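Observation: inputs received (chain + 2-succinylbenzoate).
Thought: call the complex predictor directly.
Action: predict_structure
Action Input:
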Amino acid sequence: MTSVPGPESIDDLLDRVHVVALPMRVKFRGITEREVALVEGPAGWGEFGAFPEYADDEAAHWLASALEMAWQGPPPALRSRVPVNATIPAVAAGEVPGILERFPGCTTVKVKVAEAGQELVDDVARVATVLQTRPGVRVRVDANGAWSVDEAAHAVRVLDQAVRAADASRAPGAGPVALDGPGLEYVEQPCATVDELVQLRERLAADGVRVDVAADESIRRADDPLRVIRAGGADRAVVKVAPLGGPRRLLAVAAELGVLVTVSSALDSAVGVSAGVAAAAALPGRGLPGHGEIFDDDDVANPTAGDAAAHSTNPAADPTVIPAAGLGTGGFFHEDVVETGALTLVDGHLPVCSVVPDPARLAGLRAAPDRRDWWLDRIRRCHAQL
Ligand SMILES: O=C(O)CCC(=O)c1ccccc1C(=O)O
Ligand SMILES: [Mg+2]
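Observation:
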């Protein structure tokens, strides 16, 4: 073990673990049930939910995050609530309005695109339906690395035009689409590799397409999370608490990256989401390009308090302003480990709060015995790597 607080022994840790299987409403990442292991520690609850296909060395980061939340608790918060984006899976356009209903007040919407078996027209239809249903929202898309450079260069241009064309502020018949109005906020992980992302950014610049590229998998699954930014492969970063090894590591990485970061979930239960909210709440704010009005909220708990403020490298940093976090995934579950209402979206925001699972729900959602054994074995192996 490292010097940070943690369980006395592996048996102490395993005694505190509850493995649950959460049934999902919508297929996401190809799954309909999400298993996670929850840990009750002296400082609160932590979540270990590394995706099953991840090897132990990668999953060990997720365990470190669970232990940090359970034995140290969250870092000091700079705000009392966190703006959240709505997340639209790669569903048929007709399902979009129903999904948006589960995201009350969200002014940013993330749309999954480039799904296997679908075409760009399906992505355009989904984005257009978002803007018809919620005129004026900011739209970002996530391709999960599925496009080639050529496909991405084309798709980003088309999707950006679709957003501009739908701009609700344009009167009918007002003439050509305004090219200086807000288009796509960013495209998340358009291509799989850092080299491709670098090439894509060069292509977009040469084509005059001014859409930011955000790296997700290139940070989450990389040995060196800073590499993609240093190589010029992305303008922004999507950061997730568990894969980076906990909220404090996320804050350190964000400070080193020096670009706008979006804190996002990894399809976490309410316990894992609360760790993401804690990290987002501790993140120093920065001025956001062209969209100040949506973020001028009054959520600052104590803008001068907390270590996190010291991380800011932007002299004009505004501690109230962060990009909407991708933490609104709780609605994808039929049932979660806390009562509905405990960690609920209000006015497009999630509250900063500690989440304590309901014992009856832990029992009702308990995973099958063989799955529990699988998770306990995995925790044992990952713990040995810390
Ligand atoms: O960012 C969001 O809005 C939701 C989270 C999300 O999309 C996600 C959830 C689980 C695994 C991967 C991803 C992803 O961003 O690619
Ligand atoms: Mg992503």
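Thought: report the result.
Final Answer: The pocket of magnesium ion (ligand 2) is lined by residues 142, 144, 188-189, 216, 238 (CB under 6 Å). The two ends are 6 Å apart (CA to CA).
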